[in-house]
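Exercise 7. Predict the structure of Cytochrome P450 from Anopheles culicifacies.
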Amino acid sequence: MVVLILSRSLHYFHLMWSALCQQYGQVVGMRFGQDRIIVVSGREAIRAMYANEQFDGRPDGYFFRMRSFGQRLGVALTDGPDWEVQRKFAVRTMKQLGMGRNEFVRVIEREVQELVENFRRRAASGETFPMHSAMDVALLNVLWVLLAGQRYELENERLAWLAETIHQTFHVIDMSGGTLNRFPWLRFVCPESSGYGPMLRLLKPLWGFLEETIEAIRKNPHCPNRRDSLISAFLVEMSRAEHHGSFTDSQLVSLCLDLFQASIETISSVLGFAFQYMLHHPDVMHKVQRELDAIVGPDRLPTANDRCQLPYTEAVILEVERIATVVPVGLVHRAMEDVELCGYLIPKDSIVLPLLYSLQMDPDYWIDPDVFRPERFLNEEGDRVVQHDLFIPFGAGRRRCLGEALAKPAVFLFFSAIMHRFTIECADDELPSLKGIDGITLSPQPYNLRMRERVCRL
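Solution. The predicted structure, encoded as tokens:
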């Protein structure tokens, strides 16, 4: 009853969990149906949870299996031997394809250049831009080059629709799996309000798109010898007898869906919030642009090599990630055995939610957490970025986000390029709300920008 009242009054799942932790302590347990939910908050408890491998499991239940054909597939919401095999394959293959190295950064830079040129042409004709979604196809292209070895034109309507579908999957059910995971029979009684109907309508076209792509790559006559994309490398592994049990078509679709969803949603949301905050804080925006003008100059776009010389721009991005808290609750964990945490016994198979919001908005550490202040990520001289141990937007431990090596350069390059080339203004009647749309992640409210090509001032 308390949880129901809080969820209705606070409107956000992470605020509900936060209120319970403030009232009952850093480790709060409750029961929903047959599930035990443990919410972990604060530096001490979250650090201890991430450091203990007994919390490296993922929950099993109807909602968590629904997105992978009723099985435990993929890498995001699974554990055990098959997860070990698939994670090692994904990490190894993405490294072989350039993830984290200069060649993959060049892929991102190419998409940034295409997007900036597209924006320039459209801005010249007076067009406005829906910045909660305007970068989605370019972002999908970055990942799609990795997964399928190809890219799409920015005006591709199917890719725009696909990106919107991915966004919607994050706002149907909360990170704990919702009532559908507790009471799967509700899908027969109230399929819409339980989240079953909306989620299934979103998943089916995503599955279809991925299956269609996989089949096209499989039919390529050179496929048996190709490893130029994650999908083609997976198909090579499928042909090996020793991997027959783990490398299946369903597993490949689920793996691609994991990488699709995790990467695009968070990057798009961070960028959407970043431009919102620039509208609300034009002084910060102008300071970013002055730094870009001084370091990059008028004749080119920012590159990854400029990043270390742009500490204020980097600090702005970090402060957006902190205050917007795009992932307020880290990806759900499961206690694999009975285990102690901060003096509490956590029963086996409990669902464990690390409340990252409690770290990024801790008033004792940040002093004024509700204030947008990029300087908190700079040293006293303002010429070097400093790290904070309470700032872990990608999680920690063995289950740290796989997409971190993609997200960091992508956010920096897209944000800095648009700030460098354009003056942005709100195209709506009033500034957009900084309150996010609730779900597994927080995403920005829809808003529109007007862009004008700017002149670099040296």
